[in-house]
Each structure stands twice: as C-alpha cells, then as structure tokens.
Specification:
Elements: E1 4-10, E2 14-21, E3 27-34, H1 41-59, E4 66-73, E5 76-78, E6 83-87, E7 92-95, H2 97-105, E8 109-113, H3 114-125, E9 134-139, E10 143-149, E11 152-154, H4 185-188, H5 190-202, H6 221-229, H7 233-257, E12 261-265, H8 267-271, H9 273-286, H10 289-294, E13 296-299, H11 306-311
Helix pairs in contact: 5-7, 7-9
Length: 319
C-alpha cells in the first residue's frame, strides 16, 4: 500500500482537498476553494481537478506516490459506482464523480457521504478513536450524521442511513432543500439560522450582525459567534431555537440507537460554543433517563480536516 492518499471534502460552500499520510493521518498539504455551486456540476468537477493538481504541485509528490483519491460529498451517493445521486445543497444530480476524476488522473477514486468520511477520520484519529458504538453529527450548511455499530459504519439497505437532517420534526413545517417539509435541517442548520435572521432583519429587527454583513454575502458561523459574544438578542433567539430542534433530534437518536458517544462537529459547532453547550445540555435532558445518564458528548477533534482525513481511507472498505 502506498503511503499517501488524497482526500476531498465536497461541501455546500467549500471544497477542501488534502494530501494525507495514511500511516499517521497527518495533513501534509491542503487546498481550499469556494464551491460556487451556482456555476453548475461541471465547474465543481473542474474545481476538484484543479485542487488536486495544485496540491500535487505544492507538495512535490507525483501521482505515482498516491494510493487513491477519496471524495466525500453532501447528499446521497452510489458508493459502488462513485455517482453522486442527489445533493440538493450542491444542486447536483447523477454526477459521475468517480468516472470523471478517475479518467483525468488514472488512479483509483472512491466516493462516500461527507459525514461518513468525517466519521472515519474521527474514528481513526479523533474523538471517537477506540469507541465502537457512536454517532457523528455535523452541523453546517445542512445537518448530517453517521452511525457506527461494533466499529462498522451502518449504511442501510439503500446506503442512506444516518440522514438525521431529514428526520421530520414538524409535519406541516418549513420546506427543506430536499423538497420535503418539516425536516430537522430546515430548523437546525447554519443555513436555517441564516434564513431566520435575514427574515427578521427584513421585518425591521435590530441586530449587531449587520455590522459584519457585506452586501450579497452570506451570514457565516463566525458572524453568529461574534454577535452572540455581544449578547445580540435576535441572533441568540435564532440560535436558541435551532438548538431546541437539534437537541430534540439528538435525543431521539440517543433513545433509538443507544450509542456510547455522540460526536458533534461542523462549522457551526466548531465556531459557536453557545450553540454546542446549549444543544448537549438539552439533548441529555430530553433523552430517556437511563441512556441520558450514560451518554457521552464530544466535539470533533480534527476540525475542518476530519473529512479529508477520512476520505483518504475510503479505499479501505470494511472499516
């Protein structure tokens, strides 16, 4: 087995690509680019190709030294054929990621779910190392999760297990990016918080977050954190609401699956301690007493790199 692999974390807002030492999990070099999904799937493929080529050039390695390219993408994937079936947050459908990248680089390419790869990273080198029964939940543009039982990732009959973001929390609720109504993701993601804040601002609510906003730019996790540090009423209200929904979803997972550990990660969790602390406190309170007493919560230890590290090990099927 060659010593190095490339991991790509394809998200709704950014594409992170990294060269990984498979023996240690070390990130040797990395490249980050904006996804710019509005430019279409062809542009996303081009950005991934450009990122890999830039990474190779910067690292001084050659493709002959690379074992594989692993890609983790938001949405639902055909892992066997390497096709991104549906990713509403990327506006991509039936995209042959494996075929297109493999044809360009002529090395093996593997595809997995974005939270799945982050889970692999945390299981091998992060907060879940040594744990056999746990759930990873990542909160960012969307809300995704991955289930690990007896050290194995549970993918389900159609490979779509772990879609906590599409757990229905309000039968007649807000429309989700997936097209359904009342999904957890429509209430607990950074995107959901952003929409709530923007809606309130349009109605004339005051908020210090306006000081950080630039015309045409999105509200970021960093802006939310800064506003909470200033105890901004509107932002705290919207984040607290999201926490209520997310904690209910996590409590349902704890009651249903009974894991030893819940690992929480993603941009919003990493940036906003207020959101993380409120969520885990409420999740424990909403769970049944016996699992609530035993459940452990941890933040993802690898930060932004959990996904690219995990993606580098997608070739090792049967983790």
């Amino acid at each position: 087995m060659k010593k190095f692999s490339i991991g790509i974390d394809l998200g709704g807002t950014k594409i992170l690509t990294a060269l990984i030492n498979r023996e240690t999990g070390e990130v040797i070099s990395h490249v980050k680019k904006k996804t710019k999904k509005e430019k279409g799937p062809k542009n996303i493929i081009k950005k991934m190709i450009d990122s890999v080529e830039e990474l190779i050039a910067e690292s001084g390695k050659t493709l002959d030294e690379i074992s594989s390219i692993g890609v983790g993408s938001a949405g639902q994937n055909d892992r066997k054929n390497g096709i991104l079936i549906a990713a509403p947050n990327l506006d991509c459908y039936d995209l042959d990621i494996k075929g297109l990248l493999q044809k360009h680089f002529d090395i093996p390419v593997f595809l997995g779910n974005d939270v799945e790869i982050a889970t692999i990273g945390e299981m091998k080198f992060g907060s879940a190392k040594g744990c056999k029964d746990f759930v990873c939940i990542f909160v960012g543009t969307g809300v995704g999760s991955c289930i690990v039982k007896d050290g194995k990732i549970i993918t389900g009959a159609t490979g779509t297990a772990g879609e906590i973001g599409h757990m229905i929390v309000d039968l007649n609720g807000r429309q989700c990016a997936c097209g359904a109504h009342g999904c957890l993701e429509a209430y607990a993601s950074r995107s959901a918080i952003e929409r709530r804040i923007e809606g309130a601002l349009k109605k004339g609510r005051k908020s210090c977050i306006l000081e950080y906003l630039e015309p045409g730019k999105s509200i970021t996790s960093s802006m939310i954190r800064k506003s909470i540090e200033r105890e901004d009423e509107l932002v705290m209200q919207c984040v607290t609401e999201a926490s209520e929904y997310l904690s209910g979803g996590i409590a349902s997972i704890i009651n249903f699956i009974n894991p030893e550990l819940v690992v929480l990660g993603g941009g919003l969790i990493n940036a906003v301690d207020y959101f993380y602390e409120k969520t885990i406190k409420k999740a424990r309170a909403k769970s049944l007493p016996v699992p609530a007493e035993k459940i452990e919560f941890k933040k993802a230890a690898l930060g932004d790199f959990s996904g690219v590290i995990g993606a580098a090990f997608l070739e090792d099927r049967g983790w």
